[in-house]
Amino acid sequence: MEYAKMRAIAEELGAYAERLEGAWSVEIGPSGPILAMMRPPKRHAGTVHRICMQLDEQLRTTHPGHICASGPEIEHPAIGRMRLPDAMVIPEAVLDEEGLAVDATQVLAVVEIVSPSNPTN
Questions:
Q1: Which of these, 83, 97, 78, lies nearest to 27 by C-alpha position?
Q2: What's the whole-model pTM score?
Q3: What pLDDT does residue 107 have?
Q4: How far apart are CA 46 and CA 42, in angstroms?
Q5: Is the pLDDT of residue 36 over 90?
């Protein structure tokens, strides 16, 4: 399936998910759009926050103009993937652009917090 069609389906799923109870996210994987429920505990958010604070402190010196951000999707249409990681290192200016997704070629690193009960995730 071509990426534009998968992206359109993902957007429809996202609109549908907004009407559902709970916190849902849509990603595009090798087999197409995936609707995944995410209900991380507060500890998860705290861990992401602390990692971003540590990275931001280092990035000021190592990669000026880059930050650790949580929230935007990462999209790579050429390989047909869209993900929503816990955090990513990107140029800060990317957050002022239009759209929902960050171009994967602008991402220096991603952070995904994995639950001890699901280490293969």
A1: 83
A2: 0.71
A3: 96
A4: 6
A5: no
